[in-house]
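Quick one:
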Amino acid sequence: MAFGIKRADLKRWKEEVEGGHIAFLTHFWYDPRFPKAKSVTKVGCNNRKKLSEWGRTYGLKEEWIHERDAYPHFDLIGDKQVEIMKSEGRFQELQKFLY
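Output:
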C-alpha cells in the first residue's frame, strides 16, 4: 500500500518512463512481507533493454523487472534501495522517506 505520493509526482514519473528515461519514484509503503521496509523506490523505463542494463550495474536481474501496465520497473527496498539511491545522488528522497 502506497502513501505520501502526490498525483503530480506520479504523473511526472509516468511521463519520464514513457519517454524512455530511467525514472525514480519513491513513496512510503507497507507490505507485511517486508515489515522493516518503510518505503519503496520504483525505477522505471519503457525501454526494457535500457532498464535491464541500468539494473545490471547494481546487480539487479532482468527477471526482477515488474511488467505492470505500460511502466516496466524495478522495486527497490531496504539496503539495496539505500545503496542505489546514494549512488544515483537521490539524497532528498533518502532524507524524506528513509530517515
